[in-house]
DNA sequence: TTCATAAATGAGTTACGACTCATTTAGTGG
DNA sequence: CCACTAAATGAGTCGTAACTCATTTATGAA
């Protein structure tokens, strides 16, 4: 399954905005690329202007501050990442295709691991902002929370109702899956690639399946 | 169990160095505090001098560049964090006290979760450096690898020999435990505290125990 | 073609941050 | 008390980065 990369999605989003002139679009694209390459703090507005092929004044015409640029860049990324993390399976899909946890986990993580592989730099930009930029955090949580709740929670409830998943709290199950993904991301970022994605996937599926498949004697 | 905080450990380490004058010690301490509060890039050398109560020239007497200060600050932190993550259980302890995985996980994570709770800011400094500062990564991995291998791997092999743990690759088991810890850290950082640590601990123990307790039919 | 409005320009301003160095102060052995 | 060295000082340099603004250039309706 070929996934669109964040950069491409960003390009499309930016191009679709009728308020943005071509130069303004170039500015946003250059900003994303430079933030991804060098980090926000080590990217100057003149860097951005140069990469975008415009004058520095043009950068400031629409965005009053450098921070405003970052917000304009990160917002659509978050808007893309979050839904792509919050898997949306239909009830029908769940009942017909996923008769056990293993196939469900495999289906979910196959996508997500590849998504991580394909978007490391852009994910770093987003993570850097979420982790190290106070203020944007709160807004993000407000924005993200409902989507996660609506989609993922329902899926888990479905599995639980069919007695295919242990009755642990949904938020902790989500946390676990995101933790594994975050750990994978960390490993990819820190170790020198290539990481054996297939091996990781097989392990994730086996481990999570064993962890969450109900056994009569285990409850919290 | 009361754990020493990174900041205190740092203070002691710095005070124990005979090459450092009191003012140089104050500079390092101020640097750690400011990096933790504001991040490295948003801390100026004049900030450091002011906080340490010295002249800016004094800051540059020993450390030729601002980056050298960061290295001097982060190195002992890493040296502290790593052993504290790599649990060192004696073989005797393992065989007498830990007759099942659950008590082992509880013992390990009780410490680690509290460690995270007590050192969030300092951990952010270290993480920021490891994740977002190329170059320091490689050195870190070289430095960290052997310790982890020597300690943790042996523990797992021990459990496996006693048929208390599934025979999955050690590196993936470590990855899983670190992922859970990283996820916990992320949750603490992002959500507005307080997080219910006890609830998380109980869940971690239950989930990991179920995941890693061997069942005849499951192998990778 | 003309006028009006928005977009773009880039030289300039201002502030601040990393780093230097001539000078002063503190410490120490004789 | 002196002489010598190391430690500390802080005013100053130099570069850079965010941001401004008077001016020019494109756009497009009348």
Short recap of the structure:
Chain A has 220 residues and is mainly alpha-helical.
* CATH topology call of the largest domain in chain A: Tetracycline Repressor, domain 2
Measured by residues with Cβ under 8 Å of the partner chain's Cβ, the largest interface is: A-B, 42 and 42 residues
Give the strand tally of chain A.
Answer: 0
Helix content of chain A: over 70%
Strand content of chain A: under 5%
Task: Name the helix and strand elements of chain A from N-terminus to C-terminus, one letter apiece.
Answer: HHHHHHHHHHH
Helix count of chain A equals 11
CATH architecture identity of the largest domain in chain A: Orthogonal Bundle
Tally of distinct domains of chain A: 2
Q: Quaternary state, please?
A: homodimer
Helix and strand content put the structural class of chain A at: mainly alpha
The biggest beta sheet of chain A, please? Answer: none
């Amino acid at each position: 399954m070929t996934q669109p990369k964040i950069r491409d999605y960003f390009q499309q989003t930016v191009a679709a905005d009728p308020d943005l002139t071509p130069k303004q679009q170039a500015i946003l694209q250059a900003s994303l690329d430079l933030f991804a390459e060098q980090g926000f703090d080590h990217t100057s507005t003149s860097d951005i202007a140069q990469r975008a092929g415009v004058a520095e004044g043009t950068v400031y015409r629409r965005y009053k501050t450098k921070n405003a640029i970052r917000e304009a860049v990160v917002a659509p990324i978050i808007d893309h990442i979050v839904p792509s993390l919050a898997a949306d399976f239909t009830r029908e899909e769940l009942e017909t295709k996923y008769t056990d946890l293993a196939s469900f986990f495999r289906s979910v993580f196959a996508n997500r691991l590849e998504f991580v592989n394909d978007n490391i730099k852009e994910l770093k930009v987003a993570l850097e902002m979420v982790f190290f930029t106070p203020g944007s955090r709160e807004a993000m949580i407000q924005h993200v929370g409902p989507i996660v709740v609506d989609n993922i929670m329902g899926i888990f409830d479905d599995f639980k109702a069919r007695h295919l998943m242990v009755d642990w709290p949904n938020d902790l199950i989500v946390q676990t899956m995101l933790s594994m993904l975050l750990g994978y991301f960390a490993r990819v970022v820190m170790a020198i690639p290539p990481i054996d994605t297939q091996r990781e996937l097989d392990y994730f599926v086996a481990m999570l399946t064993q962890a969450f498949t109900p056994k009569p004697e285990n409850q919290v």
